[in-house]
Design a protein that fits this description.
This protein is an alpha+beta fold. It has 12 helices and 6 strands. It has 2 domains: 133 residues, Conserved hypothetical protein from pyrococcus furiosus pfu- 392566-001, ParB domain (Alpha-Beta Complex); 125 residues, no CATH class. Helix 1 packs across helix 2, helix 3 packs antiparallel against helix 4 and helix 8 runs parallel beside helix 10. The termini are far apart.
């Protein structure tokens, strides 16, 4: 049933897959709604809970629009129904982040343990291969998932990393954050599977930590294996410096002298 409702009657949906709303983008959408009108109605339950169109509602509040066209769904909705209605509209949009799409798909599978990935694809009107990519973060280590959430990598990147053993994913993440492309990650993985030798080398591999610090391994053609070996050696040297009571500056001077002496 389509009707006009005050903006204040509507309320946000806790099952909304989108978690981040950009005020500048919402103001731009609101300005468009003021100029052109509301081109698409909002969907809501009889108590005003938004099923789809939450960005339009938020934009209307920001620019002072008083009422909106709303389609009221008066049938009883399960948690799955509510999530599907919120997700189906958004999952095809480019502005929903990969992390948000993954979490929404993951929640739907959790709510429906009898579903497989094809069932989810059918409900979302997606190709099963797309759902495989959207769910790829579930096969990745926490560091990869955190990087996806922070917007440092994409779903395509996580899909490439998910094909590799968990023990190798942190290294691939470091390679990506150092500037490697998704194709580089795919080539690295294919080479690993084919021969067990690295296909990609870089002059500098940087791994940013959640603390804000960055671990860097630099050299003439550094592979991920080289970086692992270098970091293991460095950790041993740092522990030895701590045991002998050296501070950071003194330890660095000692290491420089040792490197110079060969």
């Amino acid at each position: 049933m389509l009707s006009k409702k005050p903006v204040s009657w509507l309320k946000e949906n806790p099952n909304q897959p989108r978690k981040d709303f950009n005020d500048a983008e919402l103001r731009s959408l609101g300005a468009s709604m003021l100029a052109l009108g509301q081109l698409q109605p909002i969907g809501a339950t009889p108590d005003g809970t938004i099923l789809w169109g939450e960005r339009r509602w938020r934009a209307a509040r920001l620019v002072g629009i008083g009422e909106l066209s709303v389609i009221i769904i008066d049938r009883v909705l399960s948690g799955t129904d509510s999530r599907l209605m919120a997700l189906v509209e958004n999952v095809h949009r480019a502005d929903l982040t990969g992390y948000e799409k993954w979490m929404a798909c993951y929640e739907l599978l959790t709510l429906n343990p009898a579903w497989n990935q094809k069932d989810l694809a059918d409900h979302l009107h997606l190709d099963p291969s797309q759902v495989t990519r959207l769910l790829s973060p579930s096969k990745c280590v926490q560091e990869v998932q955190d990087a996806l959430k922070a917007g440092k990598i994409t779903i395509s990147d996580t899909y490439a990393m998910s094909k590799q053993p968990e023990s190798e994913q942190a290294g691939l993440l470091a390679l990506k954050l150092s500037g490697a492309s998704r194709d580089d990650l795919e080539r690295q993985g294919r080479s690993k599977r084919a021969s067990g030798t690295p296909a990609v080398r870089a002059s500098r591999i940087k791994y940013p930590l959640s603390s804000g610090q960055t671990v860097t391994v630099a050299g003439d053609g550094v592979s991920l294996e080289d970086a692992i070996e270098a970091m293991q050696t460095a950790i041993k040297a740092i522990r030895k410096a701590i045991d002998t009571g050296l501070d950071a500056k003194t330890a660095q001077a000692v290491w420089r002298d040792m490197a110079s002496a060969g």
